[in-house]
Structure formats: structure tokens, C-alpha cells
Give the backbone structure.
Amino acid sequence: MNSAPALPAASRENPFPVRWTTRAVWIGLGLYVIYAAARLELTWERFVFGLGNGGRFLARMVPPDFTKMDLLWKGLSESLEIAVIATVFGVILSLPVGLAASRNLMPVWATWPARAFIALCRSFHPVIVAILFVKAVGFGAIAGILALIVASVGFIAKLFAEAIEEISLKQVEAVRATGASFMNVIFMAVVPQVLARFTGFATYQLDSNLRNSTMVGIVGGGGIGSTLFTAFQKFDYDFVLTILLAIIAIIFVGEILAGWIRRTFQ
Amino acid sequence: MTASGATNGAATNGSGQAGSAGTRSLSIRGLTKEYRRGTPVLKGITLDVAGQGITAIIGPSGTGKSTLIRCINRLVEPTEGEIWFQGIDLARLRGKALREARRRIGMVFQEYNLVERLSVMENLLCGRLGYVSPVRAWLRRFAQADIDRAFELLDIVGLKGFAGQRADALSGGQRQRVGIARAVMQRPDLLLADEPTSSLDPKTSVEIMELMADLTARNDIPVVLNIHNVELAKRFAVRIVGMAGGHVVFDGPPGDLRDEHLKQIYGGEGWLE
């Protein structure tokens, strides 16, 4: 019966079977979007009304107000300080946490708590963490710094751990075979393999903290965010625009700086 | 001719005997390794290796040659058995004692296993990491004597002027030269080599074997290596150990190795044309 000629087409497997589960997921998603929009009373009239209001708001923003430069500069420099300090301490804290969380070098009793700690740091948005710290330690830069340190650990400790998990264990094995101690293995076989990526993550985090540092101020964590929030409350929309332009400028500068650091460490 | 030290028994009387050859000899007793419970890769290997010359382990892929080599410096954990070296059962060591034993055992790898992003000099100095504190390693404050020795070894292995090159810039043959130099940097009492030529072309393979034979003879270091190339094994080794199915099935000088042994080791005979 093996020698039978080609089977009739009908008995062959369908090369493009209908995948009902995928289809059901798409239909379910579509239905939920319609349901959610109805619940939130999203209507075209409401949208058009919002557009008109937005136009008036934009009109009040121009021309930007360049008269309060000392206030702007004070806020910006504080944000920069918050970002740099938070990144430095965040990275320093992330190094051991990330190492402890890497499953290829560490036993389960170390990775499990380290991963739980990282997950805890990640579980809240920096704004919520910032509010918690403002309540805990009071208004000002210290709350913002602490919030961003938590955010940094949550983000880069995980990336550090993943980078360590991707290293070549052959190189580690060879160094271990020389009788090197654990820390020597880390310094001579692990660090060289991950240093370039770690630098990349750290500069990315600096970039990210620079952006977030403008935001923690809104909830009382110091920096340009505080200045921005005050300007909003006083309806100084022209000064708001100045601040927004300054934030855009600082993000651009940060981007360039981060790229330069990455190249230096390659 | 089957199993344990029939030919070398005289040189090594059991474990950890004193004496010039005895201090560098190795004695494996009933070594078993199971990666999965109930399916042993090594089935009670007993083998004595004299403290000099090259002992080549040959055998088909997957027969546990690599596992045997790696059990000796405990890159692989033996399931059962004893490995006696310099009066110590390596199979039982833990922590600091294991690291101190590893310092005296050099290893050369099939894929060189250099730290790719470190320089050739740094890779050589990795051979001294058993003796250097983490702070000194981090700051690259190695002893001047070690650095001098590394330069000297670079000359010997034919890589003069390569000290500052990054390891990932080297060719396969050059990398293995660095790998051998790194192992010799340890001033080991035993050198293990796991398929040191399998990633290299035939000409480079011979050169690497010549270098390894020469360097280890010069420094009086016994070598245990496993190797696929039977011709290379016969050419450089003073003793051949043939493994098949987790057992030692041949043990003797290269001159005694006949086609029927190879048939027994590798199975079949069509390939022996």
C-alpha cells in the first residue's frame, strides 16, 4: 500500500488551516474596544469640542516667555543633577542585583530573591514611586532621586541580568579551570563580555532618567517638573512653552551625550 | 590491554605516591558519570596515568572522553569514583581546596575558550588568576614576574608582538597558541586538553600538537588529551587509551594499536580502508 500513487487532494492535510483561536482573539479584541468606547462616552462632538479648546490653549502659549530664565535654569540644573545622581546610584545598585539575578552563574536561592526585588522595583510607574517618596521623605530633590533610583534598578538590573545570561560560558569555564576565585571569574571572564552592553544600558538609563526627572517634579520631587507644574497652575502658558522647549533641548543634548559615551566604551 | 594501568601500573602505585614521576601521576578509580540518572556516560573507568609524556584518549563521539577529562578538574561533577592526584582525591574537593587543585591543572579547549574581549596578554595572565586577589585582577596589577613570563611564553609560542591584540582578532591557530600559553602560565603539574585540534585545519593541527608536545616536555608536564585524529594521537602520544561505550577498551603504546583495536573502538570496518 506504500506504492499507491498520489493521494486524492481531499485526503491531504489542509496547508492553510483556519486557526479559530487566533480569529476568536481578534474578534474579542474588536468587541471590547467598541464596548469600552461606549462606556467612556467617546463621541465625535466631545472630540470636536476638545479640539477647539486645544486651539485656544496653543494660542496662549505663543510667543514663548523668555523673561524668567533664572527660574528655568534653576529647574533644569536641578533636574540634571537628579538624573545623574539617580543614574549613578541606580547603576551601582543594579550591578550586584543583576549579577545575583543571573540564572547561569547563580544558584536559585540567589536568583529568586533578586528577581523578586527587581519585579518589585518595576511594578510601579516612576510617578507612583515618586509620590510615595514625596509622602515618605518630604518634598524636594531627594524624593525625586530616590524614585528614579528605584526605577533605574527595576529597569537596568533586569537588563544586566539578561546580558549576563547571554555570555559565553566557555570563556567562563576556561577561567574557572585556572583555579580563579569567583570574583576573579567575574572580573576577568564575565565583565569583559558584558561591559560594552552595560555601558549601553547605563547611558540609556541616563537618557531615560533625564526625561523622568522632568516628570517627578510634577508630584513634588524637585527639578524642572516643579517649575512646569507651578507655571501650569498660574496659567503662565507662554512660560510653559519655554519650559517644554527647554526639556526638548535637554533630551536632545542627552541623546548626543549618551551616544558619545557608548562609542567611547565600545 | 583492557582497562586499567596494565602498561603503566609500574610507574604509579596507587594514589599520591611520592617520587619524581609519582607527584605528577594521576590515578582514576571506578569513575562513573551519569548526566541523567540510570544512563551512565562513564561506566566505572579505572586508569592510571604516569607523570610524564602525552596520554591520548581516542574513541567515537559521545563515548565520554570529554566527560572523563572534565571530571578530572571538576568542570563536570563525577557521580561516583575517585580521582587521585598528588595525594588528594579530586572528586571530593570543594571550595578553596578545589580551586587550589585547579591551579595546578592546566586545560586547553577545543574552541580555545579565550576571553574574546581581553587582550592576548590579559588572556595569558588569566592563567595566574588562582594566585591573584580580585582587586589586583580588576586593576590588572599582576606580578612583574608573571608578566615577564607571559612575554617569554608569547615568544615561545610564536606570537611575539601580539600582547596587545584583542583575542577576537586572532586566527584559530593563533588562538590555540594563546590557549596553550595560558595553560602553561599556570605552571601546572598536569595539562588536560579537550580536543585541542578539532577546530583547526590539518597543518595547523600538527603545528599545535608539536607546540604542545614541545612545551610540556620542556617543562616536564604530563598531558592527558582526547583527540579524534588517530594519526595525530599515534604520532605524539606515548600511550593510547581507547574508549568505547563508557569503558576503556584499549590501553597501550601507539605501536600496539592495530586495526582490530580500532574496529573495536569505533565499530565497523568500512572506514578503515
Notes: Chain A is about 75% helix and 0% strand. Chain A has a mean pLDDT of 89. Chain A has two domains: 18-60, 67-265. The longest helix of chain A spans residues 182-216.
